[in-house]
Design brief:
Length: 225
């Protein structure tokens, strides 16, 4: 059994395909590894692939005209992203950057579109994913306006373990405090202070370039007293 077949057998959306659909998907998938800090795609470039994270972490970000860096999301193991750009056949509106060495699975646009037009199971998966992502973005706007910095850090970290969007992210994630600060829209100092406090509450452990989560539900529902 070759690597491509193994890869799709471990992919959440592939489990919803018929045998014929899965065979076509296998013929349209390829893999590529990116080193730490390298760009998968620059804003304004075309990337004619629907992309999944096999291992590692991808940062979805942009830089404003004034030079301010903005991070929209981090995509962890098992997560697939970019379906909007593939469906609309348009250049990417954001930068994609590998955080640490990252292995990606890349499904070609022709095969993606064939599945979109012919596979009921594939469309069910897309609807679930888009709905989950929309809910997360709405929550991000709400939380950034009303929650304390420590609670924002707890929630943003918990979202990186979303079992629908990132099913292969288990108990830890390789992310630095600076990257988490960008995700939460806070200073690195504020994130460092928040992580120290959350660690003292035994919700997580901070290691070099890695955060280990001990109580995911506690982070997801965290309310500062």
């Amino acid at each position: 059994m070759n690597g491509r077949i193994d890869l799709l057998n471990d992919t959440v959306w592939a489990r919803e395909l018929t045998a014929d659909e899965l065979d076509r998907a296998r013929r349209g998938v390829s893999e590529k590894t990116f080193s730490r800090g390298s760009y998968v795609c620059h804003r304004g470039d075309r990337l004619d692939y629907w992309t999944g994270v096999v291992s590692g972490l991808v940062k979805i970000s942009a830089i404003s005209v004034t030079g301010k860096a903005m991070t929209f999301a981090g995509v962890g193991a098992g997560g697939w992203f970019g379906e909007g750009s593939v469906l609309k056949d348009e250049p990417r509106r954001y930068d994609l950057v590998a955080i640490g060495e990252t292995r990606l699975a890349m499904l070609s646009r022709p095969v993606f579109m064939w599945l979109f037009e012919n596979s009921t199971g594939f469309n069910r998966f897309l609807v679930r994913q888009l709905n989950e992502r929309l809910g997360q973005f709405i929550a991000t706007i709400e939380h950034d306006r009303i929650l304390s910095p420590k609670t924002r850090v707890a929630r943003h970290l918990a979202w990186l373990f979303n079992s629908v969007l990132y099913p292969d992210t288990r108990t830890h994630i390789d992310i630095g405090q600076e990257e988490l600060a960008l995700l939460a829209g806070l200073s690195r100092q504020a994130v460092s202070k928040a992580l120290q406090s959350l660690e003292s509450e035994r919700l997580l452990s901070v290691e070099h370039g890695r955060i280990v989560v001990h109580d995911l539900d506690g982070l997801l529902d965290y309310e500062e007293q």
